[in-house]
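--- STAGE predict ---
source: upstream dedup step, 1 unique chain passed
mode: sequence only
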Amino acid sequence: MLDLIVVGGGPSGLMAAISAARRGESVLVLEKTDRCGRKLAITGKGRCNITNSEPIDDFYAHFGKNGLFLKDAFKTLDNKALEAFFRHLGLATVTERGGRVFPESQDAHDVVQTLLDEAWDQGVEIKTNSPCAAFLQNEETKEIKGLLLKDGKTITAKNYLIACGGASYSKTGSDGDGAKLAQKLGHTIVPLRPALVPLVVEGDLASRFQGVSLKNVRASLIVNGKSKKSYFGEMLFTHFGLSGPIILSLSEEAGAYLEKGAQVAVSVDLKPALTEEQLELRLLREIAALGAKQIKALLKELLPAKMIEPCLNDLKLSHETRVSQLDQKKRRALRSWLKELVFPISATRPLEEGIVTSGGVKLKEVDPKTMRSKIVPNLFITGETLDLSADTGGYNLQAAFSTGYLAGSQI
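--- STAGE serialize ---
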């Protein structure tokens, strides 16, 4: 009989299989699609942000109130150990801005292939196109006694592991199946919703800037008029609203407040490096230098070209306005526009578009020291199937790798 059947051939499932197989356990990985790691292959815009280089103790805060659940998993395989793991297998990594760690080749497919090669080298059997229908459970002991595939076949093992991911990008196989399988076994599921997902803006406020990408700006989440959280970095305007790293990092909390019926907005500071006073001094310097030139000459120094026209419209300034005509009142209005550009949020984009899924198996029902279910004795649950999600920067993949590695070491 097999020692372990892993349901799901993503980063967490493959890492669990490798970890167990390295200890001499017999392992079978079941992947519902035609190949493993399909979602992993498109992460980081196809480059795969494997982890982050910041101290591992700083990782917990990125997962919010659930972060400390990962303490044992990160002790077992932290970010430095993960880089060493890939480096030992011939995959070099590079660290970029914000501590983001990528494969040196800049190709996510190399990460997938490295995991697959190591799994095969360790004797792991992998079956693709093998979707699971249900676990067969002993009603008295609650142990799993078999796994029913959708083709009608039943396979058995001593232990089982659910690593099916979340519920986004369903074409890659990540469609919430893991949560459904766990729920049928008696686990409580925290409702799934998108995390790291673009935000939809009311009206055409954002679409006026469609295609504009901003760097070194600050976006703040405003709930019922109060600032809750902010991030500094890059963002993007789309036809429906806001996207980009700092927007994605605000999205889970934004979605949670929207579900509660709160008024949600995002305020963008286009000049976060300058205080109001410093910005006023800069405007005065520009006014002195540009004098009789039209207002557009000043705005070219402050904004991307596509944002100039909307700025003029919002401030009710004509193209003929001279820079020298910017009196104190007009300067105050311009400063406010540059420092607090507010976008009312009506919704998040659908769950299908979320890079990460929030929600999943309730953490209190899983032993953080082993990733073993507290409800089903021979079941382990790892990765995004758990109620774990973080902001951008490589933290979510680290959690997937670490929880998988820990579970595999406990079989």
